[in-house]
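Moderator note: this is an archived Q&A kept for reference. The question asked for a predicted structure of one protein chain; the sequence and the answer are reproduced below.
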Amino acid sequence: MTAAKKMAQAQKTAQADPLAASLETTVATSVADTLNAKIAAIIAPFGYELVYVELINNRQRLIRVYIDHVDAHLGPDADRGYGDLGIGVEDCAKVSRALDEPLDLMPEMETIFSGTYELEVSSPGIDRPLRLTKDFERFKGREARVHVFRPLTAEEMGNPQYQQKNPKQKNFIGVLKGVRSGAQGESVILVIDPSQGSLKHVLGSSKKQAGKKSPKIAKAPSLGAEAPTNSAEVKTEDGRDIVLIPLPLISKANLEPDFGILDSKELS
């Protein structure tokens, strides 16, 4: 079984046996992590940073590499994910040429694909993937969608009341408030509106309001110097829930597109 298929199998196993899923995910991600590190080292001298590597191994065998400029955080809209140093076609072509031969020589690629594959290089896009601790810190104040491998326990979530009301939730939408470290490792802090806690609700409501522009995203109020650590610190002043999501349990996370930024860019 290839690393990509092992990752998919780990997500299925998570529903029945979280411990077994954790072990399978560790085996699969060890290969991917090594591959990511090698790719990042190759493109860094050209002034690019690795955002995310997507592996597709079914009818189409594809490795898609998402890149950004190393100094993209210096742009005026960098905190929103749209710096003034956007990735263009020439950037993608340059990185593609730099990776072409080295990838063919990496044993990780043979482990994952066991044969031929296609390489694509792309910009992060308006729904930029969030993978590393620095990503969740960099985009504090932005709204994001976060998916987890399995439902979280009350202890993991740090909000027993919310967990009791949503015991099976695996998809979250909320405003990022950074990352905190604790006994369970690093966890993403998410401020959730009562009407936007789960992905299912948002998708349902979007159908009813088709054709309307998305409202501007209000930034979460300050949580103070300390992140929530017990059931007495699980809501903001205006009543929104604060939840913690352990970083190792996040299967996928992306920024929500901010159409207000796109509109302002088009008018400028």
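Archived answer notes: The chain has two domains: 3-122, 133-267.
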